[in-house]
Structures are given as structure tokens and as C-alpha cells.
Write a structure and sequence with these properties.
Number of strands: 4
Radius of gyration: 32 Å
Oligomer: single chain
Strand content: 5-15%
Helix content: 55-70%
Shape: elongated
Order of helices and strands: HHEHEHEEHHHHHHHHHHHH
């Protein structure tokens, strides 16, 4: 009787990955957590959209005895302040302000000057527009009587402010996208990495790993676990992001879908690289300990590294083109959050994106090789924590 041929490497990896996926998506905690996250994403975008300023509203102002030159000057001043004003002549402007039918009322005094009425505290910008406009009209009138052209003076006194750097459109939305992307990156890296470490320890403590390694190679078991858990984490993260992006687009919260699409595409690449980088090292950490209680103390260097990557992406939002951030964009694993942030804010070049991606892939490959070496040497060792020297096979 012939013995069956051993399964190929890919078949072993695929079967182990399928086992991880099936086990995790059927758990009640996984289902409940993802439903809550989807609801938070959708409801959060809907609520946030209610507080979005759709632009300056038009404020109604009743006038009484105010000449056209003064209202024109007030209108011009309001436009400069971002305040849109609509004027209407009234025989009793004060009463119109008192009953709330207009935002404010301007009444010209018989002996000169103006009085502004409002039924509540007047908006500071509206008040400034009225006062500055009246002052401008008075000055223009005095200059005209003196034979001086006010238009020529205004033209000579015009000051134009220009930026030396081109700022991307919808900067606020881009910054929000980069912030959310960094948080999602950290959630997948930390959540997925810890899931890999816990899974390795569970199999080690229950001695299931000894049975599995009797039929598959350690490397195949490691890759199957990383791919399976990674697929579940990636699907959950992308589902959460897609729900948020679609809701934000439908509610008008997001007006730069091209930027969102570009960032989503770039983020997927870094999500994969960042996850594999950290998941492999978390798996190695899990293989070195013999109890779940030891995982946190053993993995604190990875936690600090992951937090550093998260903070680099978040704190870099305030100065995305600073020298420090440009350098971190080329240093793995910080590039996993910094590069998507620079893409969202419009500062990253394609050379930077491609070059840092290749560098991150190379470093991830090294991390996987080191993790595989540690995993093979440590996963069957029980009892006390495996020393780094023993795990790495150093003499």
C-alpha cells in the first residue's frame, strides 16, 4: 500500500490560512465588533456632515436713511470678511430688528452717524463689516469733496498675499483622510499582530503545534497563520473604510473622491507591507513565550515601534513637508503611515511612493526571514521564555 504524497508548500499554507479565516469569522466577537465598527463609521459620517459649513450664509440687513454709497461700502467690506449681506430699505428698521425678521438694522441719525440694532448679540463679522464699511464710505466721501479720487488711493494701497508653496485643494479633507488612514493602519497592525501572537501561543500551550508540525513545515505554518489572519484583518479594515468613504461621499462630507481613491490604493499597499512586517515579528514573539500573560511584556518593543509609526503619521499632519517627515517617509516602518499621509496632503511624489515602497518591501522581507528563524527554533520550546540568543541561533 503506497503512502500518500505530502502536500505541496502552497497547499499547506492555503489550508492553514483557510482554517484561520474560517475559525475567526465564525466567532461571535468578530461579528459583533465588525457590525459596531460599520455602524460607527456610517453614523459618524452622517453626524459629522451635519456640522459641515456649506459656505457663508446671507445675512439680511434693514436700512433706514442709509445712502447707496454706504451700503455698497459695507457690502464690499463684508465680501472681504466672508460675510454676505442683503440690504432692504425699511420705514421702521429698528422694529424689523426687534422682531427678528432681519439680522441687523442700520438707521441714519438726522445729525449724522448711524445706529445699528439687533435683537440679539450681533455676529462679530457682521458688526465689523458694518463699522468698517461706514468708515470707508465716510472717508471716500471726504476724499471726493477734496478732489481726490478714492479709487486711485485704494488701488495704490492694495496688498496682495501669495503663498510660496502650492497647497492642495480641500486641504482640510485631505488632513482628515490622512488622520483616519493612520488610525486604521495602527488598528490593523496592532490588532492583527496581537492576534497572530496569541494564536501562536495558544497552539504552543495546547501542544497542537506539535501535531501540526508533524505534517507541515514551520515556515508553511507561520505563513498560513499570517495570511489567514491578515486576510480577515484586511477585509474588516477595507469594509470599514469603504463604508465610511461611501457615506462621506453621499452626505457631502467628502468632496475629493479622487484623493480618497488614490490614498486608499496607496494605503492598501502599506497596510499589507506594514501588517506582514509586524505580524511576522509578533509571531516570533509569540513563539518565544509559553503563556499568553507574557505576550505584552515580550512584545513591548514592537508596541513602541508601532506607536512611533502611528504618531509619525498623525503628528506629521501639522507639517507634512518638513525635513523630518520627508526623511521618515524613507525609513520603514514609519513610511507605512507617513507616505499615505503625504499622498493625502498632496506632498508626496511618485518617486517617493515607489522608492519607499520598494525599501519597505525589502525590510519586510528581512523581518520575515528573521521571524521565521526565531519561530522555527522557539515554537516547540516550552517552559520559560526563550532567550534571544537561543531563538536567533547565535553561538
Amino acid at each position: 500500500m503506497s503512502t500518500p504524497e505530502p502536500a505541496s508548500g502552497w497547499t499547506s499554507v492555503r489550508l492553514i490560512a483557510a482554517r484561520e479565516i474560517t475559525t475567526r469569522i465564525k466567532t461571535r466577537s468578530f461579528i459583533i465588533t465588525n457590525i459596531i465598527m460599520l455602524l460607527v463609521a456610517i453614523v459618524g459620517c452622517i453626524v459629522a456632515a451635519q456640522f459641515v459649513d456649506d459656505g457663508p450664509s446671507t445675512e439680511s440687513v434693514a436700512t433706514q436713511g442709509v445712502d447707496a454709497a454706504t451700503t455698497a461700502a459695507i457690502t464690499t467690506t463684508g465680501d472681504r470678511l466672508g460675510v454676505s449681506l442683503s440690504f432692504s430699505e425699511s420705514s421702521d428698521a429698528r422694529a424689523a430688528a426687534a422682531d427678528g425678521s432681519v439680522t441687523a438694522a442700520i438707521v441714519a441719525a438726522p445729525d449724522g452717524g448711524y445706529t445699528v440694532y439687533s435683537d440679539d448679540d450681533l455676529d462679530a463679522d457682521v458688526e465689523t463689516a458694518i463699522k468698517s464699511g461706514v468708515s470707508s464710505a465716510v472717508v471716500d466721501g471726504a476724499l471726493t469733496k477734496a478732489g481726490v479720487d478714492p479709487t486711485a488711493l485704494q488701488r495704490d494701497a492694495t496688498v496682495t498675499v501669495e503663498r510660496t508653496a502650492q497647497i492642495a485643494d480641500a486641504e482640510g479633507e485631505r488632513l482628515a483622510l490622512s488622520y483616519v488612514g493612520s488610525v486604521l493602519m495602527f488598528m490593523m497592525i496592532f490588532g492583527g499582530g496581537m492576534a497572530v501572537a496569541v494564536g501562536v501561543v495558544e497552539e504552543k500551550v495546547s501542544r497542537i503545534v506539535e501535531i501540526l508540525l508533524a505534517t507541515v513545515k514551520p515556515g508553511h505554518l507561520l505563513w498560513g497563520k499570517i495570511i489567514g489572519i491578515g486576510a480577515v484583518q484586511m477585509a474588516s479594515t477595507l469594509l470599514f473604510a469603504a463604508a465610511a468613504l461611501i457615506t462621506a461621499r453621499l452626505t457631502g462630507l467628502l468632496t475629493v473622491p479622487d484623493v480618497a481613491a488614490a490614498m486608499l490604493g496607496v494605503s492598501v499597499i502599506w497596510l499589507l507591507l506594514g501588517f506582514v512586517f509586524f505580524a511576522a515579528l509578533y509571531a516570533a514573539t509569540g513563539a518565544m513565550v509559553s503563556r499568553q500573560e507574557e505576550i505584552n511584556s515580550a512584545s513591548w518593543p514592537l508596541m513602541i515601534l508601532a506607536m512611533g509609526a502611528l504618531y509619525a503619521g498623525i503628528f506629521g499632519i501639522g507639517s507634512p513637508d518638513s525635513s523630518v517627515i520627508r526623511i521618515l517617509a524613507w525609513i520603514p516602518p514609519f513610511s507605512s503611515t507617513v507616505v499615505p499621509m503625504r499622498v493625502a496632503t498632496g506632498y508626496a511624489t511618485w518617486m517617493e511612493v515607489v522608492g519607499s515602497c520598494i525599501l519597505m518591501a525589502a525590510v519586510t522581507g528581512v523581518a520575515v526571514w528573521v521571524a521565521g528563524r526565531i519561530y522555527r527554533r522557539s515554537v516547540l520550546m516550552t517552559g520559560s521564555r526563550v532567550p534571544w540568543k537561543t531563538a536567533l541561533g547565535a553561538k
